[in-house]
């Protein structure tokens, strides 16, 4: 059930480099917003499994998070295998993003500014992580 939820959340993630990055971001944030706003069963299962901190779930959740991180890295860095510091920063960003989407649902925040916050924060996170990664070499 947890694997299926992760697959559903990760399905159809847009990584087509023929599309401008802004269009890919918009499409991907829109997909996640649909899950978070409802919230969908996949969203609820993922959130509860992640919060459960159970060894049976941890591997499945980690696989899902690696898949999303790889997709984000592919869109922003041109590789599905980000440097370790970038992967670390993206893991933190994903936690931030999920929290923002949950709070947007609870407070009924308008989607456009929420998406803008998520996009701006993602771009800043990647830039900061790339800078730190380059400096550590």
In short:
With 137 residues, this protein is mostly helical.
What does it look like?
With 137 residues, the chain is an all-alpha fold. The chain has one domain. The protein has helices at residues 2-10, 21-37, 41-52, 55-77, 84-107, 111-135. Helix 2 (21-37) crosses helix 5 (84-107), helix 4 packs across helix 5 and helix 5 (84-107) packs antiparallel against helix 6 (111-135). The chain is globular. 27% of the residues are buried.
List keywords for this structure.
mainly alpha; 6 helices; 137 residues
Secondary structure topology:
Layout: H1 2-10, H2 21-37, H3 41-52, H4 55-77, H5 84-107, H6 111-135
Helix pairs in contact: 1-3, 1-4, 2-5, 2-6, 4-5, 5-6
* Termini gap: 41 Å
* Most strands sheet: none
Helix run count: 6
Along the chain, the helix and strand elements come as: HHHHHH
User: In percent, how helical is the residue content?
Assistant: over 70%
Q: How many individual domains? A: 1
Question: What is the alpha-carbon Rg in Å?
Answer: 15 Å
Residue-averaged pLDDT: 93
- Strands, total number: 0
Quick one: overall form?
globular
- Estimate what percentage of residues fall within beta strands: under 5%
Low-confidence stretches: none
Give the helix/strand class. mainly alpha
């Amino acid at each position: 059930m947890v694997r299926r939820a992760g697959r559903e959340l990760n399905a159809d993630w847009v990584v087509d480099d023929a599309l401008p990055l802004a269009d890919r971001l918009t499409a991907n944030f829109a997909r996640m917003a649909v899950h978070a706003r409802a919230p969908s069963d996949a969203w609820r299962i993922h959130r509860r499994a992640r919060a459960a901190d159970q060894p049976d779930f941890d591997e499945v959740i980690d696989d899902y998070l690696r898949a999303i991180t790889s997709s984000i890295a592919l869109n922003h860095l041109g590789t599905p295998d980000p440097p370790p510091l970038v992967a670390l920063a993206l893991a933190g960003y994903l936690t931030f993003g999920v929290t923002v989407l949950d709070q947007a649902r609870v407070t009924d925040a308008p989607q456009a500014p929420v998406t803008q916050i998520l996009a701006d924060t993602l771009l800043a996170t990647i830039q900061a992580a790339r800078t730190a990664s380059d400096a550590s070499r």
